[in-house]
Write a structure and sequence with these properties.
two-stranded parallel sheet; 2 domains; mainly alpha; globular; single chain; three-stranded parallel beta sheet; binds tryptophanyl-5'AMP; Tyrosyl-Transfer RNA Synthetase; 54% helix; 5 strands; 12 helices; 339 residues; Rossmann fold
């Protein structure tokens, strides 16, 4: 029987946040790499869909890889690599562009939001921002992936990957497995501490509401103590009516492996106020990130070791993806090169 295959990735568009960690990376490390043949990718090509600075991209790609390892991805258990090191991503991306439609791309929520942001800044929208979910589908489908562990914001993209797999298979024969997204029970969408209506994102311009994995403990504390809450009184978990408070409850619950509603009840029963909740959340987040920060310092001190991990990872990823991408090329009618 073939082993369950898991694939996921993170974009090096900014410094990884606690949203990335709780929404995705923590599960990759604690669960996924132990129960499946798992691949995790620093998706650098995706980071070029909006205006980018080459030196920063290079720096953040390395930092993201280091952080994935610091978060506990173990190269003895899973495959960690950089997307642009494996040509199969773009090879398959093109075939899937011939499978997807313009209309379905324009319906993607993230495209609409990011395109509007780029236009608001007076910039133009790169064509790759529109086709990005197709490349993401290629990332997933080329490995015969069963499960894609992601935060809630990527659900629509994984849904597209499912549609494209099914459509391709129906037209050309059974080449791809149809994957499914998995999400964490708590903290599947961590919100910005200053703007609880918006997702905490690594590329946000204002960073006072964003908890970065490498923020110093006192910076983490300050950001949490200054988090926007609401004018209601008492502690209650209600994402619709009390978004700022509920976000803190989710952070605390996720950091201490509990349920937000239970945490809320505990604080409400004790008659605690926002100040106590914030202090406890800050303590829990600092403790959660302490080992990650310590390991990151060790890993960053040995770049040759990181290079070796990424080299071996890319080689394995290439070997796994190639036969399926070749099969897809043949299935659509492209003439195989004489070998
Ligand atoms: P990216 O780099 O934005 O985020 C990496 C992972 O972190 C999750 N995440 C969050 N979870 C909870 N709360 C948040 N505030 C939060 N912000 C981010 C994301 O859901 C994601 O799981 N398109 C993807 C990268 C990608 C990918 C793939 C993922 C490219 N190809 C193939 C899976 C499979 C992205 O931009 O993630």
């Amino acid at each position: 029987m073939t082993r369950l295959r898991i694939f996921s990735g993170a974009q090096p568009t900014g410094h990884l946040t606690i949203g990335n960690y709780l929404g995705a990376i923590r599960r990759w490390a604690e669960e996924d790499q132990h129960r499946a043949d798992a691949l995790f990718c620093v998706v650098d090509l995706h980071a070029m869909t909006v205006e980018h600075d080459p030196a920063r991209l290079r720096r953040l790609t390395r930092q993201t890889a280091q952080l994935l390892l610091a978060c506990g991805l173990d190269p003895a258990l899973c495959t960690v690599y950089v997307q642009s090191h494996v040509d199969e991503h773009t090879r398959l991306g093109y075939l899937l562009e011939c499978t997807a439609t313009d209309g379905e791309m324009r319906r993607m929520v993230q495209y609409k939001e990011k395109a509007a942001q780029e236009r608001a800044k007076g910039g133009s929208v790169r064509l790759s921002l529109l086709t990005y979910p197709v490349l993401m589908a290629a990332d997933i489908l080329m490995f015969g992936t069963d499960e894609v562990p992601v935060g809630d914001d990527q659900a629509q993209h994984v849904e597209l990957a499912r549609d494209l797999a099914a459509r391709f298979n129906q037209r050309y024969g059974p080449v791809f497995r149809v994957p499914r997204a998995t999400h964490p029970a708590v903290a599947t969408r961590v919100m910005d501490l200053q703007e609880p209506g918006a997702k905490m994102g690594k590329s946000r311009a204002v960073t006072s509401g964003v908890l970065r994995l490498l923020d110093e403990p006192d910076v983490l504390r300050k950001k949490i103590m200054r988090a926007v809450t609401d004018s209601g009184s008492g502690i209650a978990y209600d994402r619709e009516e009390r978004p700022g408070l509920s976000n803190l409850l989710e952070l605390l619950a996720a950091a201490t492996s509990r349920k937000p509603a239970e945490v809320a009840e505990e604080y409400a029963a004790a008659g605690a106020g926002y100040g106590v909740l914030k202090r406890d959340t800050a303590d829990a987040v600092v403790e959660l990130l302490r080992p990650v920060q310590r390991r990151h310092a060790e890993i960053a001190a040995d770049p040759a070791q990181v290079d070796a991990v990424l080299r071996a990872g890319a080689e394995r990823a290439r070997g796994l993806a190639r036969p399926r991408v070749d099969a897809a090329y043949e299935a659509v009618g492209l003439m195989p090169a004489a070998g």
